[in-house]
Specification:
alpha+beta; 4-stranded antiparallel beta sheet; 7 helices; 17 strands; about 30% strand
């Protein structure tokens, strides 16, 4: 295990995520991570940079590396393997599983990435989020070493260069902070967690149709759905069966509300059983991207100062949206109500 140290603080990652970016002038960089007080060899920013560049070049093509290396604004990401294993190659041979690496560069046309190893233009909202994160002064003030005491070899390290400045932040236990958000976006080629995007930066959502109040009273707080789930319903038979489950606790429930499944589909988000009142779940927004529908959900819990009923509750939210064949991805954020 190679240990990193900054002053008297130490940590032990083996894997690195490197980011090279340029969109605004950041504060001066932190000092190199080459000071050691325990007698072990230093693992410096130069080591981090070299490892990241080597493995991005190894995973992507030489043509990709040529574009990345000369781009004024670029982000390189490297994530190692926690539990290495042998993987079969197309020719039938077996080789150890290598690191995961990706990159993104900013061009006049927008951000270019290599998700899945193929060069492609990232979605506009993804590019805007990268620009926002790289322009945040707080990103440049994040500690160079995070997660002290974690020894997960599949962790992350972010190295960001911007107009001659450099900042390194290691995340051996997984992505942390703004640098971690940048690394996750670049690795996947899309926004991974929409709950971290400020409301003012969210793109417009699709129209969401809610059911009349007499139907929402069936499932809003006291449904009979006793487990946590997010689901998409696209057929009338599925909807009828689910409505029977939602309304099973009602004495005389209304029939399932009409849904035109030729033009619509149903989204359902269930919070599962909760010990008291004061809990709620709501589908807030549905964002259509070129490759998916991103569903943003808020789960609300009562704070310690809130007065709540003692009854067991099962909060659910159900909405209708235009039918789509795109895969649905759910992004859930948790909110605690302050009743003071």
């Amino acid at each position: 295990m190679v240990a990193l140290s900054m002053g008297m603080k130490t940590l032990a990652p083996l894997l690195l995520v490197a980011a090279l970016a340029g969109c605004a002038t950041p504060p001066p960089p932190l000092p190199p991570l080459d000071e050691r007080a325990d007698g072990f060899p230093a693992f410096s920013t130069a080591d981090a940079r070299a490892l990241a560049e080597t493995e991005v070049r190894q995973v992507l093509s030489e043509a990709a590396w040529a574009e990345i290396s000369r781009a004024p604004t670029a982000v390189l990401v490297r994530r190692g393997v926690s539990l290495p294993r042998m993987t079969q190659q197309p020719d039938g041979s077996w080789k150890p599983e290598g690191p995961y690496a990706n990159a993104a560069v900013r061009t006049a046309q927008g951000w270019i990435g290599w998700p899945g190893g193929q060069r492609s233009l990232l979605a506009p909202e993804t590019g805007r989020e990268l620009d926002r994160l790289l322009a945040e002064p707080a990103l440049w003030r994040e500690p160079a070493l995070a997660g002290q005491g974690c020894t997960d070899p599949g962790g992350l390290t972010s190295v960001i260069r911007l107009n001659g400045h450099e900042h390194i932040a290691t995340h051996p236990c997984g992505s942390v902070g703004l640098t971690g958000q940048v690394a996750e976006i670049v690795m996947s080629g899309r926004i991974v967690n929409w709950s971290t995007v400020p409301p003012s930066s969210l793109p417009p959502g699709q129209p969401i149709a809610r059911f009349p109040d007499r139907y929402e009273q069936v499932f809003r707080y006291s449904s009979a759905l006793g487990f946590q789930t997010n689901m998409v319903i696209t057929q009338r038979s599925e909807w009828t069966a689910m409505w029977q489950r939602l309304s099973a606790h009602q004495g005389n429930p209304p029939p399932a509300p009409a849904v035109d499944f030729g033009r619509e589909m149903v989204l359902l988000a269930s919070m599962g059983p909760q010990p008291t009142g004061g809990y709620a779940i709501r589908i807030e927004r549905v964002i259509e991207t070129p490759n998916s529908l991103e569903v943003l959900v808020a789960r609300t819990s009562p704070g310690p100062s809130c007065g709540v009923t003692a009854a067991l509750t099962h909060p659910v939210d159900v909405v209708r949206i235009p039918a789509s064949m795109k895969p649905v991805r759910w992004s859930v954020r948790d909110v605690v109500t302050d009743c003071r």
